[in-house]
Write a structure and sequence with these properties.
Shape: globular
Strand order of the largest sheet: 1-6-5-4-8-7
Structural class: alpha+beta
Strand content: 15-25%
Largest sheet: 6 strands, mixed
InterPro entries: Phage_Mu_Gp1
Helix content: 40-55%
Number of strands: 13
Radius of gyration: 26 Å
Number of helices: 13
Length: about 400
């Protein structure tokens, strides 16, 4: 998966965005090579513009270069904005688009943006920010269109949710959506799940996921003044799902919700017989979870066990050499518990139907690779990156031929 840095949620609305992240901290890939930005560098850029005391100005197709070169050509403005150094990069904020620029963007006549900046030629670190331009040929790779940045949050969640379910199965649920990656949960059984993250990008109004996903560990970030907003929102959602306290909720939303729930603690304790509100919330959460999962638990477990059995058999035949290809049909008929116990004690098979020096996954065809889930593809990538790239290229070729 491409390395990405993103902590801020995507802006939402039905008009050109009022905020755009110019650069994330770390390395940004462009058609002119990589450039880097540090938090210290971003703060120096913001300080420079604050000391200057004027707004930054956006233009069309880098017309500002004409002014810098002294050509005398007019340079109409597309927008005025300020800069802000946030925890995930340098942002253009409070963007006020001109009527003409807004019409261009909404009509799809200008779809992207391109920052203009200076950099250190030795380190390629960004040292000065000039402005950004409206363009249809951005140098920054994998850039989302401007109107995609204004997609409503329900539409964005629906698009990403559909893409995740298509790639990883119905047992997937969205955890958190960030500007260029999504954190999601894969339910393993009635009481447990694993959390993964994968990058995504918007192409028009369609979501494209990265080819692989990596396991992630969820961490809560405390907001200023010591309040842990994430925990507050989760607790409020557990108290009453009808509150719809999402990731974009504010402290004011939380305060209003707490007022609406006045007296809930006493009622919850009486209902559950718990000695504290925390215990009562635990009981109510367990009841809610059990109610929601009973109907689907059996099907989910069966699907996951089938996938795990397939993975175990593949590993045993082509990597660990504890089964021969002729034993695959027999292995599929065993329960996952019996198969796991057998493979734990089975010796490595020498000779037989195995190749003398087979490479992992050599037996997989491009058609079989294309049918694998995202997690199965990730397993191939971790064990044999070169074979993964070969199979991925062959699968894309097959897809192109099928469309021809």
């Amino acid at each position: 998966m491409n390395r990405r840095t993103a902590l801020s949620l995507i802006p939402v609305g039905n008009s050109p965005p009022s905020e755009i992240r110019m650069f994330a901290y770390g390395e940004t890939e462009t058609t002119r090579g990589p450039f880097t930005l540090t938090p210290e560098g971003a703060q120096r850029i913001v300080t420079f513009w604050n000391d200057r005391g004027t707004d930054c100005s956006a233009d069309y197709e880098h017309g500002m270069l004409n002014a810098i070169l002294g050509t005398g050509q007019s340079v109409p403005s597309a927008a005025a904005f300020q800069l802000e150094a946030r925890e995930d990069g340098l942002w253009a904020v409070n963007i006020r688009w001109t009527e003409k620029a807004s019409a261009h963007i909404e009509a799809g006549e200008y779809r992207h943006y391109s920052p203009l900046f200076y950099f250190d030629p030795d380190t390629r670190e960004i040292t000065e920010f000039i402005n950004f331009a409206l363009t249809n040929v951005p140098a920054i790779k994998h850039q989302s269109p401007l109107m995609a940045l204004s997609m409503s949050m329900p539409d964005l969640y629906a698009q990403i949710g559909a893409a995740l379910k298509n790639e990883f199965g119905a047992q997937v649920s969205i955890n958190t959506v960030f500007t260029d990656y999504v954190v999601f949960d894969v339910w393993l059984d009635g009481s447990g799940y694993k959390t993964f993250r994968t990058g995504y990008r918007l192409v028009g109004d369609q979501v494209q996921l990265d080819d692989t996903a990596t396991e992630a560990r969820q961490q809560f970030q405390d907001v200023p003044n010591g309040a842990n907003m994430k925990k507050i929102l989760l607790a409020l959602s557990a108290l009453s799902p009808a509150l719809q306290m999402g990731n974009l909720a504010t402290e004011d939303d939380a305060v209003r919700a707490l007022g609406a729930l006045s007296g809930f603690a006493t009622s919850a304790q009486e209902l559950t017989g718990a000695s504290s509100l925390e215990s009562a919330l635990g009981v109510l959460s367990a009841w809610k979870q059990s109610h929601q999962q009973v109907a689907t638990l059996s099907a989910q477990l069966e699907t996951l066990q089938a996938k795990e059995k397939t993975r175990l058999i593949h590993q045993a035949i082509h990597v660990d050499k504890k089964l021969t290809p002729a034993q695959e049909e027999w292995a599929q008929k065993q329960s996952i518990e019996a198969l796991t116990a057998f493979l734990a004690t089975a010796p490595k098979i020498v000779g037989g139907n195995h190749d003398d020096n087979p490479s992992p996954h050599d037996h997989i065809t491009a058609e079989q690779f294309a049918a694998l889930s995202g997690l199965e593809k990730a397993a191939i990538y971790q064990q044999n990156p070169e074979r993964y790239k070969q199979l991925s290229a062959e699968a894309k070729t097959l897809t192109s031929k099928g469309k021809a």
